[in-house]
Amino acid sequence: TMQHWHVYLKWNERLFHELYAAHLSGRVESNPSEGWYEGELGFFDFYLIPLAKKLATCGVFGVTSDEYLLYAEANRQEWQKKGKEIVEGYLSH
Prior knowledge:
Blueprint: H1 5-24, H2 36-58, H3 63-91
Helix pairs in contact: 1-3, 2-3
């Protein structure tokens, strides 16, 4: 999520399918397709972007910290624009 869009999307899809398969098999009660889009926005807003800002502030990773924040914010914007369609695509596989 603090990486290039295509890397974020690859791992997002893999996690979705893992949780969806667990739901279909009865190992997990909650259906990840219900709220996945919104959950990702919340993950960006309440965890990831604040974490990236703290990393940038403390400078623990040098200039890379700034890149993490830029990727997190850009990925959030992309997810907001495309996420609903992406989740629909996940369900069609």
